[in-house]
From TrEMBL:
One of its GO terms (cellular component) is plasma membrane. SUPFAM superfamilies: ABC transporter involved in vitamin B12 uptake, BtuC. Its main location: membrane. This is Iron ABC transporter permease. It comes from Anaerotruncus massiliensis. PANTHER family: FERRIC ENTEROBACTIN TRANSPORT SYSTEM PERMEASE PROTEIN, TRANSPORT SYSTEM PERMEASE PROTEIN. One of its GO terms (biological process) is siderophore-iron import into cell. It is found in: Cell membrane. GO terms for molecular function: transmembrane transporter activity. Belongs to the binding-protein-dependent transport system permease family. FecCD subfamily. It is a multi-pass membrane protein. It holds the Pfam family FecCD. The chain crosses the membrane at residues 12-33, 70-87, 99-119, 125-146, 158-180, 206-226, 247-269, 289-309, 318-337.
Length: 343
């Protein structure tokens, strides 16, 4: 009887959290589409999106600027959140994330190299080339982190190693920028600040294919991830090939974080804060329940931060990474205080 009541309470909690997230998602999506230098009301937005109504200026702003930007925020925010969830599962560390471990910085380095080399010869760089370069950099940084994880056992040393890798990659990136031509420097500066602005429908299509495919793979791996969370020995007894599974976790987390870095630049703290908040709201770590809400939570987090970045000091736009850091850093501090992470 008690087990049935507990199960019912868990289901109710999950439904309430999911419903609250859905309402918040819709509200933030409408605000991101409607708020700006030209304000568009909710009725007009719905008319433009579903009935083709509205003025030509409003239609152009929504379809060509704000809607693809919002779609990019949803996809890349969800990708960052899932990447952080996978890394926290892999390292069994609540403050592991693509930015803290230097993975985003490694992706930033290789994308910067590609942009400097390519923009000196061509006017633009293809989406596939950007993602490939970011993935190579992410895998390179992840390789160093894995080597350090073997050499050191303490949680603090692993995090410090990731931070050092991030500093090294950022320093090398600065050297590259110092020898780049003026046009490349402008492009690199705008991209390295982190932003969803400038996203086109072509970019959204590419990131949708990559992010949704990787996210679906993560969801399908919910059962082995749940077994892995209970320990490698337990997972192995449940028939999980630990070596192959760990490789898949690394590849999926790297693909997700690389896609974000390629299109929006480095964005901090989303991968740490959102998975923790989702688990706190749901009161469970079951991947089958956490993964979908984690993706939705990342989308909400980035939509809210992007809205703040472009409206707080309009017409000046803040870096999205600055806003996510202001919101996410206190969450990380809270994790360390509440969980008492051993350092």
């Amino acid at each position: 009887m008690e087990m049935r009541e507990e199960t019912a309470r868990r289901r109710l909690r999950y439904c309430v959290v999911l419903a609250a997230f859905a309402v918040l998602f819709v509200a933030l999506a409408l605000l991101n589409i409607g708020v700006g230098s030209v304000s568009v009301g909710v009725r007009e937005i719905l008319g433009i999106l579903f009935r083709g109504e509205g003025g030509e200026t409003a239609r152009g702003i929504i379809w060509k600027v704000r809607l693809p930007r919002a779609a990019a925020g949803v996809l890349l925010g969800g990708a960052l959140s899932l990447s952080g969830f996978l890394l926290q599962t892999f390292f069994n560390n609540p403050i592991a994330g693509p930015y803290v471990l230097g993975i985003s910085s490694g992706a930033k380095l290789t994308v910067a190299i590609l942009m400097v080399l390519a923009l000196s010869r061509y006017r633009s760089v293809g989406s596939a080339a950007m993602i490939a370069a970011a993935f190579a950099g992410a895998m390179l940084s992840m390789g160093f982190v894995l080597l350090m994880a073997r050499a050191v056992r303490r949680s603090s040393m692993l995090i410090v190693s990731g931070v050092m890798i991030g500093y090294i990659c950022s320093a090398v990136t600065d050297f590259i920028v110092a020898f780049a031509d003026d046009a490349s420097i402008v492009n690199l500066h705008n991209w390295s600040r982190g932003s969803f602005s400038g996203a086109s429908w072509e970019d959204v299509r590419v990131m949708a294919v990559v992010v949704l495919a990787a996210s679906t793979a993560v969801f399908l791996l919910s059962k082995p991830i749940g077994a892995y969370q209970l320990g490698e020995s337990y997972a192995q007894n449940m028939g999980v090939n630990i070596r192959a599974f760990r490789v898949v976790l690394v590849l999926l987390s790297s693909v997700l974080s690389a896609c974000v870095t390629a299109f929006a630049g480095p964005i901090s703290f989303v991968g740490i804060a959102v998975p923790h908040l989702v688990r706190s709201f749901l009161k469970t770590s079951r991947p089958l329940l956490v993964v979908p809400v984690c993706f939705l939570g990342g989308a909400i987090f980035c939509l809210g931060c992007d809205l703040a970045a472009r409206t707080l000091f309009a017409p000046m736009e803040l870096s999205i990474s600055s806003v996510t850091a202001v919101v996410g850093a206190p969450v990380v501090i809270g994790i360390m205080l509440r969980k008492k992470v051993k350092v």
